Amino acid sequence: MNERVAIRPDIRLDDGPMQAVGCTACGATVEVRKSSWEQTSIQWHASALAACHRRREAGGTADGVTFAGCSSLGESIRAAAASGTLTVQSGDPLPVDTEQTRP
After folding, report:
1. C-alpha span between 73 and 55 (Å, rounded)
2. Lowest-pLDDT range, 11-15, 38-42, 47-51, 61-65?
């Protein structure tokens, strides 16, 4: 069988490019794209690798090593999205936790 498979180009970055977000703890600046409030893509550059001590501690400077990020970077990304400086591509409003109790 010689079936041709059509390859669909990935044009997500055309509609919503990655945006720079700086970590408030170490100053590392990464490129971020939030497709939704639940999904985040992060691109690390050499300068961010050098700045982030937690990534270095995790061995995240070598290819193939997974590093999910640290709580400080996660908070910096969430704050940028909540303030509107980082676009959330889905357009959905910020989710509100109605079951969260406050002291």
Report:
1. 11
2. 61-65
